[in-house]
Amino acid sequence: MFRYAVQIIFRRKLRTFLTSLGIMIAVMLMTFILFGMSDLKNAVTSEFSSRFSPQDLYVSGRDMFMFGGMNTAPSKQDDVKEEIILNTQLREELEKIDGVISTNPIFTVSNVEVFLEGDDVPYPMNFVGSADLPGTHHIYNGFFGSDDKLDNGEIFVSNFVVSFFETSKKEIIGKKILVKSSNSSTFLSVASKSMIDKQYEFTVAGVVESGNDAFFVNTKEAMNMLVDLGGFTDENEYLEKVGYDQILLITEEGKTSDIEKYIVDELKLSVISTETLLGFLDTLTSGLTIALVIFGSISALVASIGIINTMVMSIYEQTKEIGIIKAMGASNSQVLIIFLIQSGIIGFIGGALGLGITFLGMKLADPFIVSILSKQGFTSIDKFFNFQLLNAIYITLGSILIGIIAGLYPARKASKIDPIEALRQN
Amino acid sequence: MSEYIKIQNLCREYRPSKKVLVAALRNLAFSVKKGEMISLVGSSGSGKSTFLNILGGLDWNYSGDIYIEGKNIRNYDQNYYRRFIVGTIFQQFHLIPSLTVEENILLPTRFQKNISKQKLNERLEYILNKTGLSDRRKHYPNELSGGQAQRVAIARAIIDSPKIILADEPTGNLDSKTGNMIINLLRSLNMQEGMTTIIVTHDSKIASQTDRTVTLVDGKNV
Known about the structure:
Helix content of chain A is 54%, strand content 14%. Chain A is of the alpha+beta class. Chain A has 2 domains: 2-49 and 280-424, no CATH class; 56-252, no CATH class. The longest helix of chain A is centred in the C-terminal third of the chain and has 54 residues, at 274-327. The two termini of chain A are 25 Å apart. Chain B is globular. Chain B has a single domain (36-62, 73-221), classed as P-loop containing nucleotide triphosphate hydrolases (Rossmann fold). Chain B is α/β, with parallel strands linked by helices. Chains A and B meet through helix 1, helix 10 and helix 13 of A and helix 2 of B.
C-alpha cells in the first residue's frame, strides 16, 4: 500500500516538489529558530559567563543598562525616579553589608574628545572610563603590555581602539593619548564653563582584548579629571554633589542574590548582576524566538493549504483509480491511508529539503558568523550553529504531521468516493 | 451443490429525482451451479450492469437475497467479498496506467495483509504463463494491445483465486478474433481453476460458447 502511494505521488514529480516547497520554507524557519536561536543564546550566555563573574554587582544611583560605567541616555523613568547620589556614606554602607568583599568605584569622564598623539581625528566615542585593573573587571580575554596595573599618567585602550587608529598593539604602547574637554556648548551647562580648553595627557601602557570602545585610566586620575572639569574644589565636594557613577561590589559566593535584593529593596539603588543581564538576554531571545515561531507557523499554515489544494486536485485526477482499487477490494480506510501517506510524503520531502538546505547554509555561513561575532568581542565562540539530531528528528516528524493533518480532509473525501460512479468516469 | 449462486427476489430501485423511481431489477431470481460458465444477455437498460454491480459487491443497496455456497453475501465483510469471493473484469479494462502489467495484476494483493510473498510469486508466474503475458510483465498499459490489456485485467481478477469471475462485456472493446481468444481464456480458466463464471454480453456468438444463457428483460430474467 505504501509503495502504491509512493508511486502515485511521484507520478506528478513537479507538482509534488512545488507543493513541498511551502513546508520547506516553514521548516527552514523552524530549523533556524531551533538551531540558530538556541545557539545564539548559548553563545551570548557563555560569552558573558566567561567575562563576568557571577559574584559581581554593579551598583548605581540611577537605572543602568550597560556595564563598564556606561549609562544609557536619560529616559522618562529618570525624571520620575529620584536619583540617589552614590556618595561616600553610601559606599561605606555598602561595604558593611554581610558578604561584600570589596567596593570598587567606577567613574566615567564624559563629554571629552580623545586623540592619539599625531592624529587629528578624535575617537568617535567621547568618554573615558576608570578601572583599577586587575581584579575589578573580568571583561577582558587578554592583555597586552608590560603590566596590567594602571599607574598615574597611564591609559589602557582596547584593541578595538587600536584598530580604529590604524596602528598595532606594539606600536601604540608608549604613545600619548590626549583627552580634551569638549568645547561644544550643547553639552555644557552654565556651571560647567570651567570645562572649556582643558587637556590631559596619558601614556598608553596596555591594550585590553575587547571588541568594545574602551579607554581606561585609574580611579584617581579619573577623579582628578572630573573635579577639574566640573570646577569642584576637591574630591570630597565632587563625591558629595555628584557621587560615584557606579560601585562594583565583589561579593562572597552564595550571598550575591541576597545582597542584590537588599540593595534594591532597602537602599533603593539600581543593581545589575550577571544574572539580571542574562535574564534580560533571555527575554530578548525569547521575544525573537516567538516572532520567528509566528512566522514559521504562518508559513506552515500556507503550506498546509497548498497540500490540501494539491490533494483535492489529485482526487479529481484519481477518481477512476480510486474506483478501481475499491472494486479490487481496497476498503475506505485503506483509500484514506493511501491519501494520508501521499500528503505525509509531501510533508516529509518539504521537511527533508528544508533541513538539508538549512544545514548546508549553516555549514557555509558558520565561519562568517563566527568571524563577525569574534570581531564584536565574542572570542570564546568557535562554532555558532550546532546541528542537533533530536531537533532534526522533531522537525521531520513535525513536517510529516503537518502533511498528514492537511491531507485529512482530501483523504476523507477520497475514501467516500462511490466506486460505481468512479468507474463510470472516462 | 446444485445451487452455488442463488439469487432470490433481487430488486434494485433508483431515485434520480424525488418524483421519479426507476426499478432497475424486479424480483430477479436464478441460480448458477458450481463451476458453471453462464452468459447474461439483455438489451441496454435491462439491468445487466446493475446486477453485476450488486454481485460484484460494489452496490449493497438492494432488496432480496444472494447466496453463495448457501451463505448470504450480506454476511461477508464487503472488502473481503470483493477480494476473495468475486473477481471482476470490465469492458474498459480499467488498468492503472502508471503501473506495469505485473503491478496491475498484483494490485488487489496490495490491500491484504499476511500474504506469503513466495506463494504470491508462484501464483503470479502461473497466471502470467496462463495469460501469455510473461514477456510483457514490465510493460505499461499504453504499450499493450486491447487483447493484452484485457488479459491483464483477467489476470488481476484471478490473482486472489476468487470463487466467482464476473466479466462485464469483456470483449466489447475488442475485435472478434481477439474477443474469441479472451472467451477461450476465460473458458480454460473456468475449467482449470473451477471458477464459476458469469459473462455479461451483447454478443450472441459469445453467449453461445457458455454453458447457459440467462436473458434479462426489464430487470427480470425470462
